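Students often ask why we bother encoding 3D structure as a string. The short answer is that it lets us treat folding as translation between two languages. Here is a chain of 146 residues written in the first language.
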Amino acid sequence: MNKEMNKLMLFGGAVILAASLLFTAARNSEFDAGYEIYRTTASDTITDTEADTITINPLLYSFWKYNHTVKGVQESGTIDLTLTVQESNALSGDEWYTIATDSVDADGEITDMFGDNYGVRQRIIITGSGTQSAIYTHRVTLKKPY
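And here it is in the second language, the structure alphabet:
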């Protein structure tokens, strides 16, 4: 009787495990099926009042949600980075509109900027001020709901 009970418990555990795996896989596939996602990462060093402009590719021909995350690490001086997210409705040229601004002014600080993008192009400008040397890591995630 003990062997029979052990077999039954083993079979029951296997059924529960299989069902939970199927449920988890179904939830993830439903989430992934509802969005087109684009991610990229860039890292560099800003010295004093230097500025870096990171243009996001590809072209965004419809409504997208964005999330820019910037982490700053102080190398020397006092870290002071200004973050400006801009979008453009033109396929080329210098017509840019600021849609979000924030700053990183503490060693190890992580700043998130998120919102809706209605333009065709997007970029982030990371500008230093004062006397400093700071390493930043920029990550962007764009999500297009269907």
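Translate back mentally: Residues 35-145 form a domain with the Jelly Rolls fold (CATH 2.60.120.380). Keep this in mind for the problem set.
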